[in-house]
Specification:
Layout (H helix, E strand, L loop, with lengths): L9 E4 L10 H4 L1 H6 L5 H17 L3 H15 L4 H15 L6 H12 L3 E9 H11 L3 E10 L2 E8 L4 H14 L7 E4 L5 H5 L3 E5 L3 H10 L3 E2 L27 H20 L1
Parallel strand pairs: 1-2, 1-5, 2-3, 5-6, 6-7
Antiparallel strand pairs: 3-4
């Protein structure tokens, strides 16, 4: 006999370039540098990786290289120190990066009585507080192995690719979700397993591979391009936030220009 379906509905959101306009992990490179966890070369390397990520997205190979780089980099870090840095800098760093459109969509789902779940390849120490900040109900992130209060450099669960589908299927069992009635949002073709696991997939700022799949399957396509700080947002349900819109290269180009402008201003101030 087939297992009975759940009765509740959830909306699953990828994090980077879907809810926020940057890689959540790379965004914290500066405070990690200021706390002496990484050197200047690592900061510059993270800035370059951020630039590439913003313009072209990250394919499976790039994600694997980023995963290997980050896990090797943080081996030996004190977990409580990382949590403290994230807590202290979260609103300064992440709050201005949250897409207004994503915040509105999350508010719409909550108004409909849906759970909101952030599912990200970033570490759970980053994902959980960001998810709370944007009003999500639950979150799932990459879980790293901890020994004696420090990261060992190994990964217990890498929340990317097929594992995102594994994660939300587990959540469906725990929280009684009917995945055929659930929603999922992502920008990357690497998240196809996540999108295919629900009845209502929607792509946001899609990379080239995901744009092609969405066109073939008739999936809605959303363009998020307006990061607005929390204090400037109006979290009233719009009723129209899930309307599909055409998306071109404008969002990615604007992100690249914004990044370049920030770098130029910083260089002039130094």
């Amino acid at each position: 006999m087939s297992q009975p379906q759940g009765t509740r509905i959830a909306a699953f959101f990828d994090l980077d370039k879907t809810v926020i306009a940057k890689s959540s992990t790379l965004a914290f490179s500066r405070p990690f540098f200021q706390e002496g966890l990484i050197n200047r070369r690592a900061v510059l390397k993270s800035a370059y990786a951020q630039f590439v990520f913003m313009l072209s997205g990250a394919d499976a190979d790039q994600m694997e290289r980023m995963r290997a780089h980050i896990t090797a980099l943080c081996a030996g870090w004190d977990v409580e120190q990382i949590r403290g840095i994230v807590d202290e800098t979260l609103h300064d760093i992440v709050d201005p990066l949250v897409y207004k459109e994503a915040a509105q969509l999350i508010a719409d789902h909550r108004t409909e009585g849906h759970d909101v779940v952030v599912v990200s390849a970033s570490g759970e120490e980053l994902v959980s507080p960001i998810a709370t900040m944007v009003g999500a109900t639950h979150s799932v992130g990459t879980k790293m192995v901890v020994q004696n209060g420090r990261y060992s450099g190994d990964i217990d669960f890498y929340c990317a690719g097929e594992n995102k589908a594994v994660a939300i299927k587990h959540l469906a069992e725990v929280h009684d979700y009917d995945l055929s009635r659930c929603y999922a949002y992502s920008d990357s073709v690497t998240d196809l397993p996540l999108l295919e696991a629900v009845g209502h997939p929607t792509v946001v700022n899609p990379d080239r591979g995901l744009r092609k799949v969405a066109a073939q399957r008739g999936w809605p396509i959303l363009a998020f391009s307006d990061p607005v700080p929390l204090r400037a947002r109006i979290p009233t349900p719009s009723g129209k936030a899930v309307a599909a819109t055409a998306i071109g290269l404008g969002a990615a180009a604007a992100a690249g220009v914004a990044w370049y402008g920030i770098r130029r201003r910083r260089n002039k101030s130094q």
